[in-house]
Write a structure and sequence with these properties.
The complex is a heterodimer of chains A (256) and B (330). Chain A is mostly helical and 256 residues long. Chain A has a single domain, classed as Ferritin, core subunit, four-helix bundle (Ferritin, Up-down Bundle). Chain A contains 11 helices and no strands. Chain B is mainly α. Chain B has 13 helices and 2 strands. Chain B has a two-stranded antiparallel sheet with strand order 1-2. In chain B, strand 1 and strand 2 form a beta hairpin. The longest helix of chain B is centred in the middle third of the chain and has 29 residues. Classes of the chains: A mainly alpha (256), B mainly alpha (330).
Chain lengths: 256, 330
């Protein structure tokens, strides 16, 4: 794989994480537990969507370097099938109850902020610039989701039980965040990508500290699901895309 | 305008001789355009009217998130999705300012929400109509937000300070909402034949309910005179409706869409458009709960509130624990 081909794949991983999680958060609009949370979670979704658009724009340019033409953000978002999506399995998991949504966001945000901070030092200026902007937003996302893990973990008996189940249920999707394939390894060696393996210890420390404050048990690292970043997804992604892509698929000639 | 048929509790206007000295002084300040502030003395009927009006407006913002939220996951481009999410987020913010404005009158947000869920208070009739195709998102911005602005700009000058100030901020955001709606309509009307058909279908369905948003004709509007004397309503229902028609018809023409009213025509003598009779039986049916979406909208809100109860309880329990720990440490 040429380095541009690896970079394209890497950018799509970053972009697809943002888009898919934003799409999930969009499902909450108007249905949050309290108006302030409705606004805050839509805000997080908007940030992630904005980041995805920046990553797609750069992915299109990198693709143009390879093929002469590159796809735009809407072609990436609306005209690829599930097996072409490169997001983590974690972010496509259904919303569940509010604690499930918070747990999913928390496990992702703690990783995302570490990743973006590392990428802010990328040797690729575009990657560094987008990551630096996104890292500021992700810092707030990570604070907010951690606060909610603590509130719900150390809230009532019921909320504690639900939060523990939520963390336990999603834990098997966290291993994928720290796996590195050959393309990513080469990009990391060139200083373009972050070495995700190096994020594991700081992530463990940060997640462990929040879970302890929340009086929650850190689950054991058992079997970890993977495949999202090579296009092998859970059944959930196809439904998410069917909804999201309906209009551009049904009316392929339309401009919106 | 998100408040319709607000009950003042009074059947007729009283003249100065019938007012108490306090009421006369209150009315004199309003007549002199002095804002009423939360700690000022005010007639109980004025306070109750404002609570009803502001809470209807607040509930409308919150319930109004649902018909638009219906298309967030299906917005046809990432740019449109981002704009729609930002718009709905603004509406949540408007709800918050308005609940806060209502709270200055001695009520609590939770009680107001409980009244909504119990069906004791209304939200705007317009949100009981469904969003069936993507052009509906354009039509809501163009027509519904357009109608709302028409009413809300005068309310920036209303007599109650906190409401007037909330309205200033809300109006700025609403005018952006209207522009984004019209922008969707332009793209649809200038798009493929299928898109144009969606745009026309949206206008066909939203036109008359938008005219109904202004409330019943002045002759049937029993509480309007009192509200206008108190300056919590600045222009009459019919006056606002006429302004809306006059503003909107040329926009529909620009879009190349047909307004679904065979009697619509320019009246050069009046300098206004004449328009056909509104089916007020539909308006009253929707207010009574018989609109296409009344049941779904309320169920969705009640379910969101009930599903969120454990979350709110946990947040309170956690705050109490923190406070107790801080007290022990002190």
């Amino acid at each position: 794989m040429t380095s541009d081909a690896a970079l394209l794949d890497y950018l799509l991983r970053l972009a697809d994480n943002g888009l898919v999680l934003a799409q999930r958060l969009g499902e909450w609009v108007g249905k949050g537990p309290v108006i302030e949370e409705d606004i805050a979670s839509t805000n997080v979704g908007l940030d992630l969507l904005g980041q995805a658009r920046l990553w797609y724009a750069y992915a299109g340019e990198v693709e143009a370097r390879i093929k002469g033409t590159g796809r735009d953000e809407d072609v990436f978002a609306f005209r690829r099938d599930a097996h072409e999506f490169r997001n983590l399995l974690l972010v496509e998991q259904p919303n569940g109850h509010y604690g499930d949504t918070i747990a999913r966001g928390f496990l992702f945000d703690q990783w995302h902020v570490l990743l973006l901070r590392a990428l802010a030092g990328s040797t690729d200026d575009r990657v560094a610039a987008i990551a630096a902007k996104a890292a500021k937003e992700a810092t707030y996302h990570a604070e907010r989701s951690a606060d909610w893990v603590v509130r719900l973990g150390d809230g009532t008996g019921l909320s504690h039980e639900r939060m523990q189940q939520a963390i336990d249920g999603l834990w098997m999707y966290t291993g994928e965040m720290f796996a590195v394939d050959a393309g990513e390894e080469a990009l990391a060696a060139a200083g373009i990508a972050a070495d995700a393996r190096a994020l594991k210890d700081p992530w463990d420390a940060a997640v462990g500290a929040v879970l302890a404050e929340a009086t929650l048990e850190r689950p054991a690292d058992g079997w970890m699901q993977s495949g999202g970043r090579t296009g092998r997804h859970s059944e959930h992604l196809g439904h998410l895309l069917a909804t999201m892509q309906f209009l551009p698929r049904a009316y392929p000639d339309a401009k919106w | 305008m998100y408040a319709q048929m607000v009950d003042t509790g009074l059947r007729k206007l009283r003249d100065a001789a019938e007012l108490s000295p306090e009421e006369r002084a209150f009315q004199a300040r309003i007549d002199a355009d002095v804002k009423v502030e939360p700690k000022d003395w005010m007639p109980e009927a004025y306070r109750r009217t404002l609570v009803r009006q502001i809470q209807q407006h607040a509930h409308s913002e919150i319930v109004g998130m649902l018909p638009e939220g219906n298309w967030v996951t299906r917005a046809p481009s990432l740019k449109r999705k981002a704009i729609l999410m930002a718009k709905i987020q603004d509406e949540g913010g408007h709800g918050l300012y308005l609940y806060s404005a209502a709270e200055t009158l001695g009520v609590s947000r939770d009680d107001l929400i409980a009244d909504l869920h119990a069906g004791k208070v209304k939200y705007s009739s317009i949100f009981n109509y469904p969003t069936l195709n993507w052009a509906d998102i354009g039509a809501i911005g163009w027509l519904v937000d357009g109608a709302a602005i028409m009413n809300q700009i005068p309310l920036c000058r209303c007599s109650y300070g906190p409401y007037a100030r909330a309205m200033v901020r809300i109006c700025k955001e609403e005018s952006f909402h209207q522009r984004q709606g019209f922008d969707i309509m332009i793209a649809m009307a200038q798009g493929t034949a299928e898109q144009k058909a969606m745009a026309q279908d949206a206008l066909d369905r939203w036109w008359w309910p938008s005219l109904m948003m202004f409330g019943p004709p002045d002759a049937d509007s029993v509480h309007s005179a009192q509200s206008m004397q108190w300056k919590v309503k600045l222009l009459s229902n019919d006056e606002l409706r006429q302004r809306f028609v006059d503003q909107t018809v040329p926009q529909a023409e620009y879009l190349g869409l047909a307004v679904p009213d065979a009697d619509l025509k320019w009246n050069a003598e009046r300098g206004h458009y004449d328009f056909g009779a509104i089916d007020w039986s539909e308006f009253h049916a929707v207010l009574k709960g018989n609109g296409p979406c009344n049941r779904d909208r309320l169920r969705t809100r009640v379910k969101a509130w009930e599903d969120g109860e454990w979350v709110r309880e946990a947040a309170v329990a956690h705050a109490d624990k923190r406070a107790a720990r801080a007290a022990r440490a002190a």
